[in-house]
């Protein structure tokens, strides 16, 4: 009779050991697979193709960079006083000018003819004055001569009266004849008085006539002066010392009254006008220190004004200089500027990587000591300037990071050679 064989069921502990062994085998397989695949996709980057920034600790200045040019706030615009044709250009933009230097000459034949006409009329009025004075002198001589003759006649009449008075007393002549002599003397006295009065009135009349003629001459002289001024204004002159900035005219061009012909800017009070992006301009305040580069030198200054208008996504900022500029600089000269908006003491910072915003969390590759390997590391950024960025967390002073844009990589570790 066959014996019955009874097999014991596997214990629970045996099943657990089997499960753990299977899990271990699978995990090892997965790890080996990942390592194998990673070895097949190892990324190597040339050191010459990347930018490296070292984390530093200390004072960080938040700077904003911009570009622009020099500008004269006391720029004078010169316009044509009268219409004319440009006949001569004596200076070009960029030339240094003194006050009253002639920049260009215009010609207007009508003004030239008007001056000649006014000068002829003035000469005519002056000749009329001389003629009037001659006529008055002749008239005065005539009246004076008549007065002299009357006085001579009076002297003779007085002598007659005295003589006949004696004869009448002696009875030689009649009393009637003596009275006639007295009447003749009195008549001459009256005539002399009338003649003197006439001469006095004639002087007043002559003086008034001369005054009227002199007024005509003065009025005509004003016309001549006006014509001369208009003609002189055809020579466009610098009204102040400085640099000729613009000259929007050409030789032979006809210029209308009021048209702009030139502009002159002073050179002793130049300021810099810098274009800043509208996003960065919001951080700039009046009085912020700045450094302006005017090749080959740099000059310190302060923000004077921030234009409230935005043009092509840019804002214009005016910077005044702390010291006089050399004579070699000129208006409209290209300049670069760096404006300091804030200073942060005792902080970590590194050269600013590309395409980053302040306050965000990023991943950068940190280099090892021999610069042959870099491992991706998480960083929290703080404030940012044009060339530096603050590190709030994730890095230590002295560490070096690749600051080139490597966002296209998803590897945690890369090789550098």
* CATH architecture descriptor of the largest domain: Beta Barrel
Query: Radius of gyration, rounded?
Result: 54 Å
Low-confidence stretches: 1-9, 36-40
How many structural domains in the coordinates? 3
CA(first)-CA(last) distance? 82 Å
Verbal overview:
This protein is an alpha+beta fold and 417 residues long. It has helices spanning 12-40, 109-170, 175-232, 278-281; strands spanning 44-45, 52-54, 56-71, 75-79, 84-89, 96-97, 102-107, 235-237, 242-246, 254-255, 260-265, 271-277, 289-294, 297-311, 314-321, 334-351, 361-367, 373-384, 388-393, 400-402, 413-416. It folds into three domains: 44-71 and 267-416, Elongation Factor Tu (Ef-tu), domain 3 (Beta Barrel), CATH 2.40.30.170; 75-107 and 234-265, OB fold (Dihydrolipoamide Acetyltransferase, E2P); 110-231. The protein is built from four helices and 21 strands. Strand 18 (373-384) and strand 19 (388-393) form a beta hairpin. This is HlyD family efflux transporter periplasmic adaptor subunit. One of its GO terms (cellular component) is cell envelope. Its main location: other. It comes from Neptunicella marina.
Topology:
Elements: H1 12-40, E1 44-45, E2 52-54, E3 56-71, E4 75-79, E5 84-89, E6 96-97, E7 102-107, H2 109-170, H3 175-232, E8 235-237, E9 242-246, E10 254-255, E11 260-265, E12 271-277, H4 278-281, E13 289-294, E14 297-311, E15 314-321, E16 334-351, E17 361-367, E18 373-384, E19 388-393, E20 400-402, E21 413-416
Parallel strand pairs: 1-21
Antiparallel strand pairs: 2-20, 3-12, 3-16, 4-11, 5-7, 5-10, 6-9, 7-8, 9-11, 12-15, 13-14, 13-16, 14-15, 16-19, 17-18, 17-20, 18-19, 18-21
Helix pairs in contact: 2-3
